[in-house]
Amino acid sequence: MGPAAASELLDVATADSPASPPNSAVFGAFQLPAELVLAILRRLPFVDRCLGVSRALRALVASDRGLWTELGFGAARSARVTDRAVAAVLARAGASVRAVRLGGCVRLTRAALRPLSSPRRPLLRELVLAGASKIGGEELADTLVGALGGGGGGGAGKCALEVLDLSGTNITTVGPVRVLGVTGRLRRLVVARCGRLTAEVFTGATLPAELEAVDVSETAAGDAALAALARSCGGSLRSVEAVRCRALGARGLAALRRGVAADG
Predict the structure, then answer these.
(1) Which residues is 165 bridged to in the sheet?
(2) pTM score
(3) Local structure of residue 35 (DSSP, 8 states)
(4) For the chain, where are the E strands, in sequence order?
(5) pLDDT (tens digit per residue) in 135-188
(6) CB-based contacts of 114: which residues, under 8 Å, 6+ apart?
């Protein structure tokens, strides 16, 4: 499901599931079988735009978990998104969701992410929390470890997360170390503009062997952090962004040159 207005998704997420989904719906000028309408909806990037078309379409969207694999709220509306809206949508999607994009949702607290730590938590592949600065650093790390550590949906140790964007959050230096310890398949990590990170971030971390891209721009990441990053990724790194990292010097840059894959 593509980016949507919080109010529209909240209405669908909190509504009772229909006892039996409608067997047909009006789509344009045509009355089509439900199976055909769902096949069309699954190919649309912005399913939420169909929510106000008719009660039948809204009921179809609510009943079909196949439409709840990607959840976002859109940049234009993100600042108005509430904990209740996000928690309701995540709870309704259950284990079906694979991507949660909450970039710019600055009002969110830890309560919004509680469904990610439930017994039916999804097997996430992408999680974007950029700008969620109201969630405390340790709270954020606890939430992420709870959501990812058990693997969700597939048993312990099967965390499938590939993209994690924590830019502009209050994650602390030990946070990435804890989170990276449970994300064995992570390919891209963004911690840019995280003001509570210190020069020792990544030191002592067990980094995913498949990590390809890291963004530490505008943080206090220093030589030790970049050296640890380059040393631990086993040649998988292709890209490291470290714009305006004032603590980064020649030693860190030299370590990056040695650690980043030659074809990166």
Answers:
(1) 128, 190
(2) 0.79
(3) H
(4) 24-27, 30-33, 70-72, 99-101, 126-128, 163-165, 188-190, 213-215, 239-241
(5) 877 888 888 888 776 444 433 345 788 999 999 999 888 888 788 878 888 999
(6) 87
